[in-house]
Amino acid sequence: MDLVVGASESTVKSLLGKLGSLLAQEYTLISGVRGDIQYINDELASMQAFLRDITATPDGQDNRMKDWMKQVRDMAYDVEDCIDEAGHRIHGPRSDICCASVVIPVHDVLTWWPRRQIATQIADLKSRAQQIALRRKRYGVDNFKNDKNTSPAGSGPTAGFNVADHQEAIPRLIGLQEPVAMGEAVEKLGRWVTDDSKSGGVLSIVGFGGLGKTTIAMELYRKYSDKFDRRAMVTLSQISDVEAVLESILDQVKPQDQNEDEQQTSSDDSGIFGKKRIISPLLRTIVRRVNWNSNPRNHNETHMDGDNKGAGSLDKELADVRKGLHKQLRDQLTNNSFYGPINDTSSFLLLIDDVWSVTTLENIRGFLPMPPASKTKGRIIVTTRFPAVGHACNRRPEDDIHNVRELSHDQSTELFKKSLHESKTLFGAQTQGFRRNLTRISREAVQTATQSSQISEHDTTVSSTRINRIPGDQLEKLLKEALLAQFGQRDCENIERISQEIVLQAMEHSQNTETIRSREPRSSMAGGDHVPTEIIESCGGLPLAIVTMAGTVACNPSNSEWDGFYNTLVPKDPVKTVTPDIVTKIINYCYNDMPGELRTLSLYLSIFPKGSKVSRKRLTRRWIAEGFVTEKEGLSLEDVAEAYCNYLIKRKIIRPVEHCSNGKVKSFQVHDMVLHYILAKASEENFVNVIGGHWLTPLPSTKVRRLSLHGGDTKRGNVTNKMNLSHVRSLTMFGSMNQLPTHSFKFGIAQVLDLEGCKGFKNHHMNNICKMVLLKYLSLRRIDIKELPEKIGNLKELETLDIRDTNVEVLPSSVCQLERLVNLLGGNKRTRKALNFPKDNKKKTIKGSLRVLSGVAVDGRSAAAADLHHLTDLRKLAIYKLDIRKEDETFRLLSSSIEYLGGYSLHTLVVDDDSSEFLKSLAALSSPPKLLNSLELSGKLVDLPKWIMRLDFLTKLTLSVTALQAENLKQLSELKTLFSLTFSLTAAKLDPQTAAILEDNKAHTGGEILFPAGGFDKLKLLRFFAPVMPSLSFPEMAMPNLQRLELRFSILEGVYGLHNLQKNLEEVHLRMHDEAGEVTRQIVQDMATTAREDSKSPRIIVDLYHE
Fold first, then answer.
1. b (16+ CB within 10 A) / e for 546-568
2. Domain 935-1106, CATH 1.10.10 — does that match?
3. What is the pLDDT of residues 919-972, one digit of tens each?
4. Do strands 377-384 and 980-984 pair parallel, antiparallel, or not at all (unpaired)?
5. Quick check: 381 and 193 in contact, CB under 8 A?
6. Global confidence as pTM
7. At what angle do helices 112-138 and 100-110 cross, to 10 degrees?
8. 83 phi and psi, to 5 degrees?
9. How far apart are CA 1074 and CA 1090, in angstroms?
10. What is the residue extent of each domain of the chain?
11. Which residues contact 660 (CB under 8 A, 6 or more apart)?
């Protein structure tokens, strides 16, 4: 829990609720303890009210106040630990048990000792609470005094955070916009990058944090990487594992595995942490042995691997590994296999961000084929905050250096306005007041209808909740659907009338409001055009400061706080020299300006490594498990968590770097300086403790509550042995399980355990996990595990179980005992390896309030998997393998379940049916799932279900290539909300029957696929993944808003009419098989050459994949 850093009201409510629950349980208490608990409960409530006021004015906190706040926080942590321990150590007898007069006394005797221990702990906690209160008076910690003349951060407009306003972000693609005010530098440096007279060289971009050096480097990489045969980018820092960096480079320049490019897994720890290891196991073993042998204490002990090699042997083995890595890199970087065999004209572009050491860079460079030793044309772009490093890299005639300067006033203003506009338009052009008015008026109207049509008050609340989630461009229709779904056919006339009146009243009220606003003089905040000059100048021309400030301005709807804002940021005696302190000061102000709960959620970002891509879903699910999110305004936990994430994007605290194919944010990054600030804050408040990785953080001196082990620092590999881990509530590991001693892997009160991608997972780890009875979030994604034990059923509190990309094929029968399970994630999306339900469990059904069931298999013996009628909260159903026949009972159950759930909350449906019998049966659904926004149908599908055209909210559609017909394309072009369209087929599924369907489709269209002229008004992403890609032809007026075209193939017959898409088309991504034939290679080379010669042509990026 967190009382200080964010004044998290939701977390405190959780603790106070636990205290109240404990008071209500007579059986857990010993005489005299009830009063102690009540005292602690009341004292904490008062302390929290006091802290909520004092944390609103961070500048008013002196050292005594901060120390007192720390004591309160630590006591609250210990209270929660005590309550949770009591919860799982003492359980009352069942109320319906027979012979209660005998059983209850026996139970009291058996639980006397643990109840006695807990009573002692509670008495001690009461004494601590009293001492903290007395200590505050003794040392003169003053009461908070609110100065009416000041406007403290966090108490202004943003303090009233409106969840509903941050629900629906506009679907979009990223990475297609050029950065503001960087054009001149990019153009200048671009000439160096593309200078054919230079065979190699290093370009050093130098500037302190926040100046925009990484932005310039990334734009160079984005703009010119398509001119090189191979490309890669990595991030370094104070601590860098050279071998891991080299492996990351090798992984990026090698052909990717088949389907890895299609919906890649969210590598939340990309860079040197998330990449697939090539020679890592051997190298890590050698490093461990070297470190072990260098410790004199270990000389007389047996090595854990039973292998105690001499130093000479280890050195030779390490040298062999390095030699192998060197050879692989040289082979890949000198192999111009895009268009032909190995030759001397290959080229590569490498971006190395945030270099701290010249030695590290030279070690990396020594592994690369650089002139004069090689004829390969290699360009290396380096960013560094140290001028000495930049000058040291500029030793050769072909090298260059660029010192980044702060922006001019005009450039600063331009960047500020653009960033402000981005934040303000994140949630669409429709007036946010329209949504609020709709919700308010709908409640009133439905309440009126309640009295006349006997609709229950409960139904009224649920209905207005659904109304609050209406997308702006489909309000009236979805409102009517929501009312009908909730009230049924009991009062159709009233529902029709109510839905029309609600929308009309909301629109009228919003239009009147806009009219009034248009008559008012424009304030400094109205459109971002008249922000006080001093505010922009206070940013010192530093892009990071400007962007962060713009996010803060966008979240403040009025200018009533500008006096305090200005006085806080602008010094009385302005300093002419621009320093990094300006960025830190602005980050600090913008952080403190956020509502308390958002500050808490921001600090949680410190768990993830620098430069990593953080999955949005992974983060929001963890927030929920930690208890940071509560239902608000009738919205679910997931919706509120997503709104929080959207708010941090709007605030510019996090930056989207990858979008899903439906246009939603898939992953994001945190700027280094923002992350450094957050990490320091989290460490100071003992909110999160980070060990290893890029950061040199002090070891915790108190109990550890949230622990994140980043790995990559062999010098600090055993520091966990010295830490008190018995109070850990959240453990996140990146790298190897060897970072954590086995004896410490026993956290009875842990609620979050995230081991995604960890190496070295053993059976005893799983046994210990099954003892974590309070666990709510468990991620074993991408670890080496083959099965789950039956004891997994002991985790009664589990809400998220993520076993994707593992070797687990069958769920244990005890998974049906997990009544709180919300997210069950399994299988492998790329290979379609699915998760099976136990065959001996036919009479049991999946319990819990599942909202996501993904990656499962359904066959004729999986009645539990097919009968899903009771899962009325289910939002996503993804079936990766379907093996059922029409005569099977499972066939009928699954079809009925999909039809039934479609009338509730089902938004995403994925069905992979090789036989296509079930897909064909879906066409006959009497009531299709009209609220779907994502649909994927894979198999030998030729004719589309007619009801697809009635999916008014469908944004993402994925179909088999067998459905690629002119008639189907014409129908799909009429879908008004479709954002992305994908046609996919893997080589493994290209059987004779499928090949015959494809040939028949080509024969009906004269050998090419002609897209219709017109339609597809909202389509921005078009993708084709198939071994054989037929000729694609785009006439004039086709897909007027298409931004990205992606093709993956072994054989490409041609792409025609790309010039007709040039209005908005920004990028064409071609992924070619590494053994493609000469004809295909020539077609690709011609397309790339044409694009390079035509400045108006979209960028064409060529990559290889392997199968």
1. bbbbbbbbbbbbebebbebbeeb
2. no
3. 988 888 888 888 899 999 998 888 899 899 989 899 999 999 988 888 899 999
4. unpaired
5. yes
6. 0.83
7. 60
8. -65, -45
9. 22
10. 1-90+115-139, 418-428+532-687, 935-1106
11. 263, 666, 956
